[in-house]
From TrEMBL:
Alphabetized InterPro entries for the sequence: CER1-like_C, Fatty_acid_hydroxylase, Sterol_Desaturase_Related
Annotated Fatty acid hydroxylase domain residues: 136-273
Keyword list, A-Z: Endoplasmic reticulum, Lyase, Membrane, NADP, Transmembrane, Transmembrane helix
Transmembrane segment boundaries: 46-68, 100-121, 127-146, 183-213
Claim: NADP is one of the keywords in the record: yes
One Pfam family cited in the UniProt record for this chain: FA_hydroxylase
Descriptive protein name: aldehyde oxygenase (deformylating)
Cellular localisation: Endoplasmic reticulum membrane
Major subcellular location class: endoplasmic reticulum
Organism: Oryza barthii
Subunit structure comment from the entry: Homodimer.
Gene Ontology CC terms: endoplasmic reticulum membrane
Amino acid sequence: MASKPGPLTQWPWHNLGNYKYALVAPSAAYSTYRFVTASSAAERDLLNFMVFPMLLLRLLYGQLWITVSRHQTARSKHKIVNKSLDFEQIDRERNWDDQIILTALVFYLVSATMPQAHVAPWWSTKGMVVTAVLHAGPVEFLYYWLHRALHHHWLYARYHSHHHASIVTEPITSVIHPFAEEVVYFVLLAIPILSTVATGTVSVVTANGYLVYIDFMNYLGHCNFELVPKCLFHVFPPLKYLLYTPSFHSLHHTQFRTNYSLFMPVYDYIYGTTDKSSDELYERTLQGRDEAAWRPDVVHLTHLTAPESVFHNRLGFAAVASNPLGAAASGHLLRAASAVASPLLSLFASTFRSEANRLDKLNIETWVIPRFTSHYTSKSDGYKVSRLIEKAVSDAEASGARVLTLGLLNQGYDLNRNGELYVVRKPSLKTKIVDGTSLAVAAVLNMIPQDTKDVLLLGNANKISLVLTLSLCKREIQVWLVGDGVTDEEQMKAQKGSHFVPYSQFPPNKARNDCVYHCTPALLVPESFENLHVCENWLPRRVMSAWRAAGIVHALEKWDGHECGGRVTGVQKAWSAALARGFRPYDYHHHPGITHDGRGGL
């Protein structure tokens, strides 16, 4: 939202949520019906019929840019602005598809009011020339001065500040504007298309190709990594004035008073508003950062869980990944889409980098093994999964990582004896393997209600249950806790009001409505933890699993030893170190105010 929101700031369908797509449905259905029932090819309105397919294509295209951009910025090599992206920006940009819906509605309106558009052919050379000339001339020129006007303090405070709230841009930042501002852009960018319609030179390729061009240039300028090859400017030097680069426009978001051009910097050069550091920033980001300075100190190795976790990943749907897994309102749609994406993802032969964070000079990365929980529990896939984990351990050591944490089922006893297998196979392993047992046990102990004397211990026996038992014996109380393998039938035997405290990485199935279910072992991250804008599986915002946090604490404390197999760092030692480093206890039963947005108080 702008700092002082002006009239028509909010989009008309703001309160409809995903039901806003219903606004397009009647026109899309009628257009399809007319196209299918037309008696001859001459009566088929191609331009009108292509509106809905283009809407779907542009949604897919935008998502592709999000995925590619986030993958590149996680690597950091050609990243332009190295600042933190937060949940507030993700929420502000979650309705990036509004402008695509508006485009579809405008196209349907033009088709209904301008009969010339009904006979548009597939291609028109004259229409292409008219579109290119009008864009390079009037559109770019008028946009330059409109943009400068929007930076006047009155308009900036009421409208354009909403867009500039994002210093660290993502591709979709390009289309995040108040409704009134977006309407003005639409009027401006409609000049070429309406002109071709009026002159009878419009074509399906020209009109829709212009939309794709606008999308491409918008996403390019806001992707936050440099990718325009230098050879293009060597082959054709004037291209410098006709094509901006991501670093060129990035300076507009960091300096505010320079580089106002739409896509062609020519007017910035003419009117002297080109940032003096444009060329230097382009050269530096294209060359890339020194990888030695950006090597990971800590690697958290995780994997996909359910099929819908494909889109909950940071490289998936931004709005979905910023909320706990399963919290998305469009769950059925996600499951349907994941049925298509999951088999493709399983073809990946190695891990991929999903997330890059920073805490107290530590570079922290999350690597994902592209396999689901079902692969880990399948006897036929177990060997393949084990090889992927072992390769990830080797890659982490090659990258210079000091600590590798094994998340979820990557530390299964049957798979690698809680990570000990890799230490046995390579005794000289420099990267410390951490399974997080000590901190996870400490987090579980912290969730047990005060004055508790009897708690049921259910689930499969494992390393964590053993360490828990030993720790509880020292406290002279008997405790029953729930781990993997606890059944609904066992839960039904509990008394009303019983507390189920999981010590497993996966939450138990909630079979009772009259009992209290606690969170899987987790901690709130320090306020200084940077670039955290996705949720870790089912955990809420700014909450991290104890296993993942354990590796970070291990690296911060510079402990020289593994915590895997039968080795344990020490429950109290790990807990005290975590608290000293700014981590805080978390349990959504005790802190319901931070279940979704991470902002509630303790």
